[in-house]
Design goal:
- The protein is an alpha+beta fold.
- The chain has two domains: 4-78, 3-Layer(aba) Sandwich (Glutaredoxin), CATH 3.40.30.10; 89-208, Up-down Bundle (Glutathione S-transferase Yfyf (Class Pi), Chain A, domain 2), CATH 1.20.1050.
- It is 52% helix and 8% strand.
- It contains nine helices and four strands.
- The longest helix is centred in the middle third of the chain and has 30 residues, at 89-118.
- It starts with a strand and ends in a 6-residue tail after the last helix.
Length: 220
């Protein structure tokens, strides 16, 4: 059996994407949690593995893979079933489109909302949060429309698209559910009220085998 370890920070959406992928693939691994508060990702020991001090990093035998999409691509090439990046050209295109849209249009504004809320700076950054929430709402409207046609973001099977977008959507949910967000009236959460199809899609992901193992430890 190949030794397999994943270096991660709890709650990091990119790390969560890889953890979900490992569970979808049915691959066991040793979780190596790094403490962000202690900046363990910048320790000499970890920098010897990942010179940029970033997460996630997958180590499998002599192979070291950094960057989320690179890890997912590696896993899909090494362990083809179930396919994360599509079973035909159309599916592959839809998956990459969803990932590109998330990275280009959703991830940044979600960060603009979540960072100040997590850091207790909602008052100072209220205008930034409200502006970003308008962008996020537009993107979630498009996701909601997509999920009226398919069970998963790129078709009839869970894929890398779902595994990349879901942690970002949940980061947003965790942020806007905070009491400090209530006076801002962002109209984003709970999803079951504003985006019922996204809410149902989240339920489907949470029902995947191994989801609990992949759930961020410090959120439990």
């Amino acid at each position: 059996m190949t030794d397999r370890a994943l270096y991660f920070i709890s709650g990091s959406p990119p790390c969560w994407s890889v953890m979900l992928a490992l569970e979808v693939k049915g691959l066991s691994y040793t979780p190596q949690r790094l403490d962000n508060q202690k900046r363990e990702q910048k320790s000499p020991e970890y920098l010897a593995i990942n010179a940029r001090g970033q997460v996630p990093t997958l180590v499998e035998g002599d192979t070291v893979v950094c960057e989320t999409l690179a890890v997912l691509a590696y896993l899909d090439a090494a362990y083809p079933a179930p396919a994360l990046f599509g079973r035909n050209p159309d599916e592959t295109a839809r998956i990459w489109q969803a990932i590109s849209v998330c990275d280009g249009n959703l991830r940044g504004p979600v960060g603009d909302i979540s960072r100040p809320l997590f850091r207790g700076k909602s008052v100072e950054f209220a205008e930034q949060i409200k502006s970003a929430s308008d962008k996020v709402r537009s993107e979630l409207d498009l996701l909601e429309a997509q999920l009226s046609e398919t069970q998963w973001l790129a078709g009839d099977a869970v894929s890398a698209a779902d595994l990349m977008v879901f942690p970002v959507v949940m980061q947003l949910a965790r942020a806007v559910a905070r009491e400090a967000a209530l006076p801002l009236d962002l109209a984003l959460y709970p999803y079951r009220e504003h985006f019922p199809r996204i809410d149902a899609w989240c339920d489907r992901i949470e029902a995947l085998p191994g989801f609990e193992r992949a759930y961020p430890p410090h959120w439990k």
